[in-house]
Design goal:
Helix content is 42%, strand content 16%. It is built from 28 helices and 18 strands.
């Protein structure tokens, strides 16, 4: 079978400054993630035009993200000392926010807006406040303030004043590395399947010590592990389920929690646990079965690398993360595990642990009921089907990303894609909110329909597994049949695309007695007469029986990237990203054979040229512009020379069609020796070469005496 390279993820960028220096770092991350990136730049400082132009790079994006990089100081074309700058920038910020609001419904990809640092001393706080207040939390927008970016990714030197003057490049390469990392981190987690469960070990993980040996009162909650407790609680509030997988006696664990009321995490914060002496892969599979979730939705935390390796070997779907050997590094380590990111948090996320508890209570009650029919009849089930409201977009998009079992087509959609789809003529999107006597389950269903060929075509029908098995799916299809009949349509068609996980959806469709199914492009097409479908209700004969629980759930398709721990260990600072990107570029384009350069300066300069030009530079007479150099790379070359050699060159030193490696190395050496130009430098070298050994020693002694 022929394997195909993954489609590139498109990153379209509109910036108020020259942003092209960010591209090498975007490409670096693309290679690390195994996801090729296609980077496109809008014309310089045309953010509003790019947002509103139907022919722009933003409007044409179909997969990936659109990115706005904005300095509030660029909103007003006025000098920093102008007293009207603050007001003009604030007014233009409001206009830009309106442009974003107008453009969003037309985009099919998420919009990332990064507010970037202004020049020091520029009075644009009011404009920044306008942007933050209007854009942060807007559906379809992911907003980043530079304060938050720099808090997570500290940068030694943010601004490059000279590059800003020459080419409107306001930031250092390290700052561009930080910005690229934030963009890729969010774009990756938007597109990656979300994790849903964090399973943790206990001894030397949740506390220091071994409760079975040190005794319940002998274990200690040190500061790093207290941070872990608080971190896990925040993850729980963001919608993650917590579970325990520990080799221990349950009585010892219970006594330990009781002996330590200072623990932020309590046993009741965990949705399920396996505390025994079984292998951890076995217990993780058992937890997955109890929670009715796939192993590929689990993150496992343990202090023991051997235990993590065992889980990785036996259950590779689980993301196994060993805590850092230096436990003091734990807080920063956790902050840089991308898998813990939540691009959006909904009200259902905040209630997820309680909702899971309701579902488990429902299952236990159903199993103990004398009659399943009487049990279902006693539920007081309520299913409220309503058109999708704008404020429910985040949750609706989340359902398409997270729902696997009862999902007829498993089409994943972002907020932007759903918003654009809702504006499409003929398309209607409905949500379903569910409650019964066990409680309210929130927004747990989504349906997308449109009319075609005298039938109501169900593009997507999906339900959270929390509300399966009680007749919700029957009520929704009956409601769709009523909708069809109201419009004079007599057929409801539901396409089904099989996956490894959506057997419950197929079982439900096949259980409806008056439906007809036939194969269609590798899937199935179910057609139901609307007159009969409107009467559909739950009964034992039409109930979709979930597959029997097994000790080890079927494995899902492996994720494309699982190296989050490596990022947290070695690529968590912009300086590390910058160094790694440079090493990678140098290795990828190294000269095929060692060459002889006249000086160390030429060798170091050749490495810089190799990285910037992305091709081998192996000869002193190599010409910068003949090798593909251009004006932007020339400015980056000035920045690199200053960083590498501590020499600030003039623009004319590099803007020459005859610029060779040897010539530029001579200029650099001349500046380092204080010579005004290369000719003076060469004369100085000749003078030194003509000195005798005795004259050289005398000269050095004189210099040393002067220094003393």
């Amino acid at each position: 079978m022929t394997s195909h390279a993954p489609d590139p993820l498109r990153i379209a960028i509109a910036a108020s400054f020259t942003a092209e220096p960010i591209e090498p770092f975007l490409q670096f991350w693309g290679r690390r993630l195994g996801t090729p990136f296609e980077t496109l730049f809008a014309p310089y400082n045309q953010i509003a035009q790019t947002l509103l132009d139907p022919g722009s790079v933003f409007a044409s994006s179909r997969g990936g993200v659109n990115v706005v990089l904005l300095r509030a100081s660029d909103l007003a074309d006025l000098p920093p000392q102008d007293p009207s700058l603050a007001q003009a920038a604030a007014e233009n910020a409001q206009q830009l926010a309106e442009a974003v609001r107008t453009a969003l419904p037309k985009f099919t990809v998420p919009l990332l807006i990064m507010l970037c640092p202004p020049p020091e001393g520029t009075p644009v706080e009011a404009a920044e406040s306008v942007l933050r207040n209007t854009l942060s939390g807007m559906p379809g927008v992911h907003f980043f303030h530079y304060h938050d970016v720099l808090a997570l990714y500290p940068v030694g030197q943010v601004h490059d004043v000279r590059a800003a003057e020459i080419a409107r490049i306001p930031y250092t390469e390290e700052m561009f590395a930080a910005m690229a990392t934030v963009i890729v981190r969010r774009a990756h987690m938007i597109s990656a399947p979300p994790y849903k469960v964090i399973a943790v070990d206990l001894d030397n993980t949740l506390w220091r010590g071994i409760c079975g040996e040190d005794g319940p009162s002998g274990v200690v909650l040190d500061p790093p592990r207290k941070h872990l407790h608080e971190f896990l609680l925040r993850q729980r509030e963001a919608g993650m389920l917590l579970a325990i997988a520990s080799k221990n006696n349950f009585s010892d664990v219970l006594e330990t929690f009781n002996a330590h009321p200072e623990f932020p995490l309590r046993l009741e914060h965990f949705s399920a646990w396996r505390i025994d002496w079984n292998p951890k892969p076995v217990n993780l599979a058992s937890l997955a079965a109890e929670l009715n979730l796939g192993l590929d939705s689990f993150i496992f935390l343990d202090d023991n690398p051997k235990e993590c390796a065992e889980v990785t070997s036996a259950a590779p779907e689980v993301l196994s993360i060993a805590l850092p050997p230096d436990i003091a590094q734990l807080p920063e380590f956790l902050d840089h595990i991308w898998a813990f990111d939540h691009p959006s948090v909904t009200e259902e996320d905040r209630r997820r642990s309680a909702l899971i508890a309701q579902s488990l209570e429902f299952s236990r009650a159903a199993q103990s009921a004398a009659s399943l029919e009487e049990f279902i009849a006693s539920l007081n089930l309520r299913v409220d089907v309503q058109p999708l409201a704008a404020e429910r977009l985040p949750r609706a998009a989340q359902l398409t990303q997270r729902t696997n079992q009862f999902n007829t087509t498993t089409i994943r959609r972002t907020e932007a894609e759903l918003a654009a789809l809702a504006q499409t003529p003929g398309v209607r999107i409905f949500t379903a909110e569910v409650s019964d006597r066990f409680g309210e389950y929130g927004l747990t269903g989504l349906v997308i329909v449109y009319t075609r060929l005298n039938e109501l075509y169900v593009d997507s029908l999906l339900l959270s597994c929390r509300v399966l098995g009680r007749g919700v799916e029957h009520r929704i299809l009956a409601r769709l049949a009523e909708l069809a009949l109201d419009e004079g349509i007599y057929t409801v068609t539901v396409p089904f695309t099989p996956t490894a996980r959506n057997t419950p959806a197929r079982a439900f469709l096949e259980s409806i007695p008056f439906g007809q199914a036939h194969e269609d492009n590798g899937g199935l097409l179910f057609r139901f007469p609307a007159v009969e479908l409107q009467t559909l209700r739950w009964s034992p004969s039409t109930a979709a029986c979930p597959p029997a629980q097994e000790a080890a759930p079927a494995r899902a398709v492996a994720r494309t990237f699982c190296g989050y721990a490596e990022i947290a260990e070695s690529l968590r600072t912009p300086a590390q990203v910058l160094a790694a990107a440079r090493r990678e570029a140098a290795m990828a384009h190294a000269a095929p054979a060692a060459q002889t350069f006249a000086s160390e300066t030429e060798e170091r300069l050749a490495r810089i040229w190799t990285e910037l030009l992305q091709k081998p530079v192996d000869h002193p007479q190599a010409n910068f512009f003949d090798l593909g150099g251009h004006s932007l790379l020339a400015v980056l070359l000035l920045m690199r020379v200053k960083e590498e050699f501590g020499v600030e060159l003039a623009v004319d030193d590099v803007y020459s069609g005859s610029l060779t490696l040897a010539a530029l190395a001579s200029v650099i050496d001349a500046r380092r020796l204080g010579a005004a130009d290369p000719e003076e430098y060469q004369a100085l070298l000749a003078e030194i070469a003509n000195l005798s050994d005795e004259e050289v020693r005398a000269l050095l002694e004189r210099e040393m005496q002067q220094e003393e």
